[in-house]
Backbone:
């Protein structure tokens, strides 16, 4: 399946926040988000993402796919965090599960597309072990 095909599937967020911030919230979400996306905070978040993905790779074969969806390489633990902090979009595909995790390179969350119930449960457990949360956005039915 091509990356664009996954982007049309149901999705969940793997986030540092436990649920969606309401649009009418009185908090300072945008100021705090800006802080999280600066260094060294973003590197810390990417470290959590890399650790989650390495743990996930113990259960499933995970491949890194480029933005065109053409090239695929095996997940290499030594370079994963570097790829995540490089600022480019990174797509991790689990062919056996027909699922994908995408990271835009400049967000405080990753997106899990088209997970089976079993994969969603495992990712939720792994996210919890890293102090992260998995939740479905309000706009997703």
Residues:
């Amino acid at each position: 399946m091509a990356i664009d095909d996954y982007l049309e599937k149901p999705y969940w967020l793997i986030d540092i926040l436990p649920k969606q911030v309401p649009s009418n919230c009185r908090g300072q979400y945008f100021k705090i988000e800006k802080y999280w996306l600066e260094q060294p905070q973003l590197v810390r978040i990417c470290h959590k993402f890399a650790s989650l993905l390495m743990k996930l790779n113990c259960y499933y074969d995970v491949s890194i796919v480029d933005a065109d969806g053409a090239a695929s390489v095996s997940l290499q633990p030594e370079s994963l965090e570097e790829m995540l902090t490089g600022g480019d979009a990174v797509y991790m595909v689990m062919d056996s599960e027909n699922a994908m995790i995408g990271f835009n390179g400049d967000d405080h969350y990753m997106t899990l597309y088209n997970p089976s119930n079993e994969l969603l449960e495992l990712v939720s457990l792994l996210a919890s072990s890293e102090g992260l949360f998995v939740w479905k956005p309000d706009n997703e039915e």
About this structure: The chain has a mean pLDDT of 89. The two ends are 22 Å apart (CA to CA). The longest helix spans residues 41-57. Helices lie at 3-7, 29-36, 41-57, 77-84, 117-129.
